[in-house]
Amino acid sequence: MIIISIGNELLYGKTVNTNASFIAEQLFNIGIEVEEVITIGDNKEDIEKALNQAFETSNWVITTGGLGPTKDDITKKVIADYFDCSLVMDQPTLERITEMYRRRGTQITEVNRRQAKIPEKGIALRNDHGTAPGIWIEEGEKVAVILPGVPFEMKAIMIEEVIPLIEKKRNKNQVVIHKEIVTAGIGESALSDLIESWELALPGHITLAYLPTPGKLMLRLTGRGNKAEKELLDQELEHQLDQLIQLVPQYIISTKNESIVEVISKKLIKKGQKLAVAESCTGGFLAHQITLLPGASQFFEGGIVSYSNTIKREILNVREINLKKHGAVSEFVVIDMAMNTMNLFDVDYAIAISGIAGPTGGTSEKPVGTAWIAVASPTKTVTQQVNYGTQGGREVIIQRVAGAALYLLYQQLQ
Amino acid sequence: MIIISIGNELLYGKTVNTNASFIAEQLFNIGIEVEEVITIGDNKEDIEKALNQAFETSNWVITTGGLGPTKDDITKKVIADYFDCSLVMDQPTLERITEMYRRRGTQITEVNRRQAKIPEKGIALRNDHGTAPGIWIEEGEKVAVILPGVPFEMKAIMIEEVIPLIEKKRNKNQVVIHKEIVTAGIGESALSDLIESWELALPGHITLAYLPTPGKLMLRLTGRGNKAEKELLDQELEHQLDQLIQLVPQYIISTKNESIVEVISKKLIKKGQKLAVAESCTGGFLAHQITLLPGASQFFEGGIVSYSNTIKREILNVREINLKKHGAVSEFVVIDMAMNTMNLFDVDYAIAISGIAGPTGGTSEKPVGTAWIAVASPTKTVTQQVNYGTQGGREVIIQRVAGAALYLLYQQLQ
User: Fold this and answer.
1) Residues of A in contact with B13 (CB under 8 A)
2) The domain at A260-413 falls in which architecture?
């Protein structure tokens, strides 16, 4: 499978190509490999060239972008030319767009009518979130899928229309099985060192992939084989996974595709327990990570961003003597923060963080990247000092410190 | 210029190709256009093919990835083959790596020594943050730049070594001038409608690009011409920019490449004023956006994430009658939140947000995406209701509501 991403904005560097990642992930999940992503601008010549190159490598091509009503959007025409047919009006799409405008209280314009045209050999893929339909066109072995570039429109069409159509068409004899584990509390390279000999001993039809995302490092074992031997393959993967888990049990937080926040949330909700946070250097990022999870209100009461010492003293009751004697970035201060947050929010667990996210504010004793973390629980308060150095800058330090804090809480919940 | 991004992880969909965007942006800033980004896996055949294709289109190629010490990394060999030379030990690089390991208290291994080898026709580009050096190799008209895939290593080499070398080599007669404005308070398509006739009337050598990033929509005018006419071109761009600003003055927050948080921070710091926030549905994201800015402590005191009604009542003193009569997502409640945050944190300005980020929790009266925002200031409290619908999901709603809140504060600071 080749993905062609079309759009000048992708070549200016201000728009990151998240569409390609989303499509690749969806395909990966059903065992289809993406061989290449080609990113080009909104012009006829480049789109033609990319399409020709892509079909030389693969029979399957997905394009995104270049379907809007503006003058730049010419993907549809290039595809129609490639498959040697013309653009024709798709009546159901025209009706859908007309109805969409009617509900907005406006009339459909000529420009919008044009969006309902698709290559004669193709079929329209319903777009519930925008005017441009997706298009599926195939001839012989070749399949092209044309999707809009607006991420939420593309995503819905991909999940609801494209994946089911691909699954219908693909080879039914091969089977691909994935097994996943999610790790926390350790970096990718350190983990890689620990499991190296196990990884090198994997048989050829089983591969390991590291899939890091902000706040989550997932490891995915993929096994390939004949459909007839599916059960055997599954057992083999389970066996390999067990071996992996036995190697580094403390760092494996889940055998599903879930983040540490999800794992923590399940534990807290199950016990009917509540969480609150007090953040200094992470400045709200930890609370944000937690509240990105739908339904976070079931276990998360809230938090304080105590960015100044005044707020640490006056709202969080951090003792003046601790601030003076040990400084805001100290074990004493995060203990005060965590204990008082637990009381203030009347919760079972409280996380407190104080550190130096940089780029300034570091000292030789407490360089940029240093942070103290405390987790207060009904039975005890634990603390940890971390230092992630300056690599990656302020944003990465904030992410890493928040990740370490969540892992410290996770350990207390075990 | 063609960018080749190398790495299996980029084709699995879990790693977004931010390296290509960064490189494209750096090149765009010095007026160099990227024609294509080719993303491929870590294998010899695909790297060779991509390199051949790239050099057919352009004389300039930058690659990232595939320079680590593991078995998969074969970019360097493919490049050496392409330029018909062998890999030789680069002594300064070897010394740098040896010293790096010495400082870590370990000995350099054979695998790490290999990282100091570069194609004989190339020169090493210093990598202060990792072992693999960048490589610059040229022959005739062709230039290839080989960079590691680790983002912070790549970024430093790109800025410190590659850009200056490119500027040295490029055509000295052409001049490219950029003028930028940053907008807020309006979406891309609504803005596009407002300025359409101005945009269509731009002369051919001046182009407009929309450069949206989370929390910032930048418009960039680019003018191209001969070096001899640089001053004239600059005046022309200034004139066009003035016309644009006169069309939509209320939405233009800066003529520099700065975010709304930076604009707000400058105004507050200048007046010696302080800010605090109270967040419900945005759950810490607003505080996070603010504290991503280095030096935010100069104007930002902190915030409360009042995720539960209990916390709204008990910490923020939101009146029970307002919660009962109007609900947590109401003008009355955000006014209480903002006023009490102003008092609690003893600040000049306080932002309060309460809304429904979804996917559940919406009603017919207050559907998902609805939020109330209040900004309390020394002289008055203003409020705004927004509804961004469900498109884009929870994370996008959170970002948009936080963006609207910052714009409401920005207006009060004018």
Assistant:
1) 20-28, 34
2) Alpha-Beta Complex (3.90)
